[in-house]
Amino acid sequence: QHIACIFDLDGVLVDTAVYHYQAWKQLANSLGFDFTYAQNEQLKGVSRMRSLDMILKWGGIEKSEAEREALASLKNSWYVAMISKMTTDELLPGSLKILENLKAIGAKIALGSASKNSALILKRTGLTHFFDAIVDGNEVTTSKPDPEVFVKAAELLGATNKDCVVFEDALAGVQAAIAAGMYVVGVGETENLPGAQLVIKDLSEITIAELLALKNQ
Ligand code: B16
Ligand code: MG
């Protein structure tokens, strides 16, 4: 099958958003402020340093470059402590099944994530072996909505961009996939993911047959 699938990690395959939220909240609280659930939504798919900059702005706080590096490391140490205890129970609905079914038809599978912690998360949740290529925050210089992460993933898979289907829960990720000329399946709410060819609530809502039809239309 001439189909290659590129999966975002947080919010598509695994439920790590709650841990990012807890760790950022703890950091903001330690600096004497808080942020809302709606603000937290804006952090999805956004890199660690950009997330920190947004949070500091919400708190009306300015920090030097060195202080920002230290704060980002502190947040990450709390986050890593949390994800180190993750289990396969934290896979989102349909993740395992779609990966198994794609493997069964010989489709190529890549990860395209902004996270620098993807290796640990994949290991803890037992997903590592499904991936023919892994591109995450350690490999890219420009973050989503720049298409770099998905373009690199396609290159590693030996697939042309138009043969790739990207699964994304963040608007920046949907925009990145469109910029790469790929098909996008949004995971979440339609109103949050304009531009996606199809939006599903979670991966249990799509079959391989539907996926092939989407790509061939
Ligand atoms: P880390 P994704 C993104 O992962 C998350 O959605 C975002 O909340 C996080 O800030 C970013 O990874 C960086 O993560 O701090 O672990 O490097 O959705 O692109 O898989
Ligand atoms: Mg995501």
Automatic annotation (TrEMBL):
Record InterPro entries: B-phosphoglucomutase_hydrolase, Beta-PGM, Beta-PGM-like, HAD-like_sf, HAD-SF_hydro_IA, HAD_sf, PGP-like_dom2
Catalyzed reaction equations: beta-D-glucose 1-phosphate = beta-D-glucose 6-phosphate
Co-factor note (free text): Binds 2 magnesium ions per subunit.
Record site: Important for catalytic activity and assists the phosphoryl transfer reaction to Asp8 by balancing charge and orienting the reacting groups: S113, K144
Alphabetical GO biological process terms: carbohydrate metabolic process
GO MF annotation terms: beta-phosphoglucomutase activity; magnesium ion binding
Enzyme class: isomerase
Residues that, per the record, bind substrate: 8-10, 24, 43-48, 51, 75, 113-117, 144
EC number(s) stated in the UniProt entry for this protein: 5.4.2.6
Gene3D superfamilies reported for this sequence: HAD superfamily/HAD-like, Putative phosphatase, domain 2
Family: Belongs to the HAD-like hydrolase superfamily. CbbY/CbbZ/Gph/YieH family.
Active-site positions on this chain: D8, D10
Protein name according to UniProt: Beta-phosphoglucomutase
Keyword vocabulary terms for this entry: Carbohydrate metabolism, Isomerase, Magnesium, Metal-binding, Phosphoprotein
Residues annotated for Mg(2+) binding in this entry: D8, D10, E168, D169
Cofactor(s) it depends on: Mg(2+)
